[in-house]
Design a protein that fits this description.
The chain has 521 residues and is α/β, with parallel strands linked by helices. Helix 8 links the parallel strand 11 and strand 12. The longest helix is centred in the first third of the chain and has 25 residues. The protein is globular. The chain starts with a helix and ends in a 5-residue tail after the last strand. Bound molecules: ligand QV4 and calcium ion. Ligand QV4 binds next to loops.
Length: 521
């Protein structure tokens, strides 16, 4: 019995160790009760630093996902595509967004106003096998794709997986075969041998430099294409977060890009112990629902979250669209709700920000000229707004607080910005007081701190609902702002019994209404 007892103690110890280790990497370490992350896709470091100070901190955004900061290939055919940054040529920290000093300044200034930085890291591969050789890279360093030679790190041909790959082309040909998905080239990208101690050390060294500079964590690119064991070893080498801004012993927040819509041998579950995982079903389903495709109805979302077969809440990183699927790359197809369909996009983002499931990420995009041929956008490669020489343009701010020069800045749209605040105000409160009309009109609250009502039907909504909120007059933060004691939008009267009357025309610019504790007049 002594032995059995010891065995149980041992198991308990292992469990606690796993929970301790795992839980830390699932925690985004957000500050001041802030909750939402915004992906400032392709923004320059100088603009992100300014945005942290002038907009993100004052409006309660928790953090920024930044584009890959390290040296990457530069291409002129096509002309400086956005995706060149997913082709690393080295780990020096100069990129299309700026140099190392600008990066360090941005991380420092964002941290100083309590906005965390999460770095998109590309560690599965280097550039494409057809990337040629020379100094066409963002720091000007020499490399050779054909010889698999990246001297600034250095990686040589011994540090790649080709010997393990069993496909004829050397590329991934069949996603039904987990071995080739991990050991062959993703669209021709030179696949790193992350099983090697040397490669793990170089990758961890690159990431640790960023941790030491003060970043709060990482969006890890292409995790489906890396063995969980290799990732575990590499991530296990990461330093704790910089104690200038984070409490001692804080582990970097990890969210792994794994596209799992079902139907493949590789699942999100294999990665849960390493950190959070991108839940791609979330945006694909919610886009379908708000578009009312496939007979979907908003009323079916009563059990939204795990009830829809999504991963466990504590593992999920959720979003409506990302930099891939807003332009037909990655997964989700035409159902994805992007800024190109602003009405649907705002509703879907608001639903996400109001709902308790997952850590939420808001997309902030740039515009490009789309050119559909047989349903495929021929211009899906176009990079951020830039000058003739390929240098990315700054983000100018218009007098009305919108962005200029092709930067969309969804995160600044009143409806989205105010819902980011809503999420902070209701943080930790349970999903409550659900109502639906068995069609596309639904409402739900978060404890007694917030309430939201959607009308996505083709007729008006006119109903009295229990909001669960204290009586008073509230400002609808979708149609307006609460400014001092004044409301520039609709006003909602909540009675002493928590009931309120809602009227939402299906013709409204934004057919939804949201009130929260801090929007009380
Ligand atoms: C081409 C051919 C290949 C050929 C190769 C030869 O298509 O068949 O073998 O040349 O060199 C670009 C081009 C692509 C080209 C490749 C290599 O688009 O045509 O291959 O470069 O030169 C982004 C883009 C890709 C881009 C890549 C690298 O989406 O189009 O490829 O950057 O620049 C899967 C994955 C998932 C992935 C998703 C898009 O499981 O992990 O596809 N998502 C992430 C990122 C994404 C990024 C990558 C992964 C790669 O979010 O932005 O791909 O880092 O679902
Ligand atoms: Ca791989």
């Amino acid at each position: 019995s002594d032995i059995i007892f010891q065995h149980h103690i041992f198991k308990l110890f292992i469990l606690l160790a796993l929970l301790g280790l795992g839980a830390a990497q699932h925690n985004p370490h957000t500050k001041h009760g802030r909750t939402a992350i915004v992906h400032l896709f392709e923004w320059r470091w100088a603009d992100i630093a300014a945005e942290c100070e002038r907009f993100l901190a004052p409006n309660g955004y928790a953090g920024v996902q930044i584009s890959p900061p390290n040296e990457h290939i530069t291409l002129t055919s096509p002309w400086y595509p956005w995706w060149q940054r997913y082709q690393p040529t080295g780990y020096n920290l100069c990129s299309r967004s700026g140099n190392e000093n600008e990066l360090r300044d941005m991380i420092t200034r964002c941290n100083n106003v309590g906005v965390n930085i999460y770095v998109d890291v590309v560690i599965n591969h280097m550039c494409g096998a057809g990337g040629g050789e020379g100094t066409h890279s963002s720091c000007g360093g020499w490399f050779s794709a054909s010889r698999k030679d990246f001297p600034s790190i250095p990686f040589t041909n011994m540090d790649f997986n080709d010997h393990k790959c069993r496909t004829g082309s050397g590329d991934i040909e069949n996603y039904g075969d987990a071995n080739q998905v991990r050991d062959c080239r993703l669209v021709g990208l030179l696949d790193l041998a992350l099983e090697k101690d040397y490669v793990r050390g170089k990758v961890a060294g690159f990431m640790n430099k960023l941790v030491d500079m003060g970043v709060a964590g990482f969006r890890v690119d292409a995790c489906k294409h890396m063995w969980p064991g290799d990732l575990q070893n590499t991530l296990g080498r990461l330093h704790n977060l910089n104690t200038k801004w984070f409490s001692g012993g804080s582990r970097p927040f990890i969210y792994q890009e794994v596209i799992d819509l079902g139907g493949e041998p590789i699942t999100s579950r294999e990665y849960f112990h390493l950190g959070r995982v991108t839940e791609f079903k979330y945006g694909a389903k919610l886009g379908t629902i708000f578009r009312k495709w496939n007979g979907e109805k908003l009323s079916y979302t009563k059990s939204w979250g795990e009830g829809w077969g999504f991963m466990p809440d504590g593992n999920a990183l959720v979003f409506i669209d990302n930099h891939d699927n807003q332009r037909g790359h990655g997964a989700g197809g035409a159902a994805i709700a992007t800024f190109w369909d602003p009405r649907i996009h705002k509703m879907a983002v608001a639903y996400m920000l109001a709902h308790p499931y997952g850590v939420a990420r808001v997309m902030s995009s740039f515009r490009w000229d789309r050119n559909f041929v047989n349903g495929k956008d021929q211009n899906d490669w176009i990079g951020p707004p830039s000058h003739g020489n390929g240098a990315t343009k700054p983000v100018p701010i218009n007098p009305d607080q919108t962005c200029g020069d092709g930067w969309v800045c969804e995160h600044r749209w009143r409806q989205i910005k105010n819902m980011a605040t809503f999420r902070n105000v209701v943080n930790g409160q349970p999903h409550a007081n659900w109502w639906d009309n068995q069609s596309n009109q639904v409402a739900f609250g978060r404890g007694n701190r917030g309430f939201i009502v959607f009308n996505n039907d083709d007729w008006n909504l006119d109903v009295t609902l229990n909001t669960g909120m204290p009586g008073g007059t509230y400002c609808d933060v979708v149609s307006g702002n609460k400014d001092g004691g004044r409301c520039s939008g609709k006003q909602i009267q909540v009675g002493g019994d928590g009931h309120a009357h809602f009227k939402i025309s299906n013709q409204d610019e934004d057919p939804f209404v949201a009130i929260h504790a801090d929007s009380k007049l």
